[in-house]
Amino acid sequence: MTRLRELLAVDPGSFRLDKTDPRGTPGLPDTKAVRKDPKAWARAEVTTIGTELAAYQEKLFAAAKRGRTAERVLLLLQAMDCGGKDGTVRGVFAGMNPTGIKAVSFGPPTDEEKQHDFLWRIDRALPPAGHVGVFNRSHYEDVLVVRVHNLVPEDIWSQRYDQINQFEAVQAEAGLTLVKVMLHISPDEQRQRLLDRLDDPAKHWKYNPGDVDERAKWADYQEAYQAALTRCSTPENPWFVVPADRKWYRNWAVATLLRDAMASIDPGYPPAEFDVEAERQRLLPAASTSDSHGS
Ligand code: AMP
Ligand code: MG
């Protein structure tokens, strides 16, 4: 396990989001290559990690296909608007096999979803055995946007922290390795990214005037994040806060956290359920006739 996990994990007793620098780069190795060009180093490293992720993913998929494991992995991403959730998914999952990946985004609950408890749609969207899932937003919105906008009464949302912890504990028992990441950006960086979207007609589809209204509630959101991060960071399912103003650091950190999680459950390739040597003999020509080939 790398030191990065320990550096970025939320300790419920001492963590302070307002003391966490969105431009920080904790855990970057102190080597000549990094000092020379951290951005280039991180990009190359993410490509290397991507190859490792693809190999772990294939082994997980193969093991589950043989019914040998119930393990599955879920990368859960939360962030303020423009926090880089989509960019992280593109950057980190680039090398992986789309067949084994399940990506889900959560918006305001639909009419059908509103007929159920807040975890219903989450449960249904979890990756099956052998799969790697990614959540763009999650059940944490039900203690974030919901809390900030009083979408349900406080006596309802205040119970959700414990309900979330219980839900995640049950899923862990059932083989889910959850990697919960908050991408932490500064208000200045968000403003710059919103302006960039306005400046580029190809990015206008990403611009949501509502994001500027949400931006006015920055302090309320940070308070809601502080509560969610500390109340729902458990030894089994810790939260990680990744400084995200620098995209290259963000991608490297998330890729590393995911790689470490997958390494810890590495099931190995499933052994053959047939006699490999016997199969080889069936395919190779018999010794007496082999001379007649290939000359
Ligand atoms: P986007 O990620 O830009 O597509 O926006 C999705 C929107 O859905 C965000 O404004 C979220 O705050 C909102 N959203 C997600 N989950 C919930 C929820 N459980 N209740 C209300 N709004 C939500
Ligand atoms: Mg948005």
Any idea of the CATH topology?
Answer: Rossmann fold
CATH homologous superfamily placement: P-loop containing nucleotide triphosphate hydrolases
Count of helical regions = 14
Q: Strand tally, please?
A: 5
Look at the structure and give the CATH class: Alpha Beta
Which kinds of small molecule does this entry bind, naming each only once? adenosine monophosphate, magnesium ion
- N to C succession of SSEs: HHHEHEHHEHHHEHHHEHH
Structural class: alpha/beta
Average residue pLDDT: 94
Distance N to C terminus:
54 Å
Sequence of strands across the biggest β-sheet: 2-3-1-4-5
Unreliable spans: none
Beta-strand content bin? 5-15%
What is the helix content? 40-55%
What's the shape? globular
In terms of quaternary structure, the protein is single chain
Largest sheet: 5 strands, parallel
Number of domains: 1
Overall CATH architecture: 3-Layer(aba) Sandwich
Tell me the radius of gyration: 23 Å
